[in-house]
Amino acid sequence: GKTITADDGPVVIEGSGTGDALNITHSGTGNSLEITQNGDASALKITQAEDHHGIELDKSGTGSGYGIVVTNAGTDSAIKAWQTGTGGYALLLQQDAATACLYLTKGVGAGNAVSVGNGGSGYGIYISQTGDQSGAYISQATGHYGLQIVAGAVASAGGISIHNDGTGYSINVQQDGAGS
What we know:
little secondary structure; elongated
């Protein structure tokens, strides 16, 4: 291999044409690019100043590997998305296949699988369902409630509000067990 030492300044690759400035093609079994950052700074920083993607990952192969794998043994979040603009989303997931767009699983521990904190004026969770199934479905397999709503002492609007402009039932309860 070849070692490039950048003790007196960075290694700079400049490109101004329509082609790639850096292209790595690797047919071996090792990594195409490995970054080891032992200092107190980011291992990879990308500054994107134009109207295009900061990172575009194209995993168009048919193999079973993941597009992105993040392993975090630290004490902070594995992935953080910080949206400071007024348009768009901090995280947008789109799935065009018949599987779940987002699948969260928590193997062990007492923490929540999903926690939503909202200090703004919008909804904590907003579901716009235009498909042929329910907006939310909870499959409960333990001795606890499938859905528990707790309205704290400062909640002046109550715990549940149902608004139905349609012709169907506002509440439909099907009780197949021995409970009341």
